[in-house]
Amino acid sequence: MIRLGLPFGDPSFLIDPYPTYAQLRREAPVWWADDVSAWIVSRYEDICSILRNPETFSSARPWAGPDYDRNSGVLIVTDPPRHRPERHKFTGAGSFSARTAHAWKRRVESICLNTVSTLSTDTFDAVTDVALPSAVQLFTEYFDLPEPRRGTARWQDGILPFYHPGTSSMMPSILDYLKELVAARRRDPDGDPISAAVLANEASRTLSDEQLAWNFYDAILAGASSTAAVAAESIGLLAEHPDAQDPIHWTSPTAIERSVNELLRYAGHIHRVARIARRDVHLAGQLIRQGDTVHVLLASAHRDEAAWERADQLDLSRPMTPINLAFGHGPHMSPGATLARTFMIVLLPTLLFKRRPLRRCGDIERTYSRSLISTPQRIPVTVAA
Asked: How many domains does the chain have?
């Protein structure tokens, strides 16, 4: 019988969970974990099947706290059939379409170039000096937040309670501000993503202003923080792997896209997502009962040898298939995935062409949540002589 030895939320487990993930994939790909009272699913194909099957595996509040519970219109905890029309309010006007994200590429280039060009020394923190301020600036501009409230430091502070509820007083004030902004954009829409969603909701009014604010909070804060986290981790990986900085990986658009895809696979910081079984179902020889919690290990899926050869190795020449789960899969795939990828496609080669060769120059500091999110706080990097 497999024994993890540590609760999933214990930082000493999350520092290096990959040997345990490999053991689970080999010996118990669907396994009941007493310490979290949930099924743990670790293989790529099983995880894809769960994520694209909301009729059997529900997203409705398997982990959410009382704030989400009061706001059932929050998309990440809403199931079909309600989920699709509500999500369409945020995506149907093109707010998160690939076309819109690509149209923003020139502005992304300007943000990233300015961030890299203003680094004052050859030694910097990939998190606080590069990834986080540029991602926050991108997402707050993308949602057209009024300039006086767009301050990068304010929104960086607001990211903290998203991962660590109760550690900051920023979340209530940001939610109040977003509710005010919803009302203001209803009175005076200006063509931005917030106005588009507010106007799309007017006909049905199935989402309250508070529910709209929660969804924008998730889109802006979760979008910026997740994008910053994977970008910072990617910079750290490049600094640890000199061969990955070779211009052959960062010259042509195809090579850049392939390199970013591999870094997303290898560096993903969200280790698991949760679902609730809506009916009895058999998976990998195990009977999952209706009402059971199921944790799918995205980070394990990305190291599954059945899906990728040499899955434990970083290989920027790896083909783009199979599907990368860094931004989710199925109906709950992140609507901001294309924008986040565009950011990475611009930021990483900009940094490498301006600051190569990069090397790590200190220990990485991360925080770990019980929901299995690994968030980099500090990744010290220097330009090698």
From this structure: 1
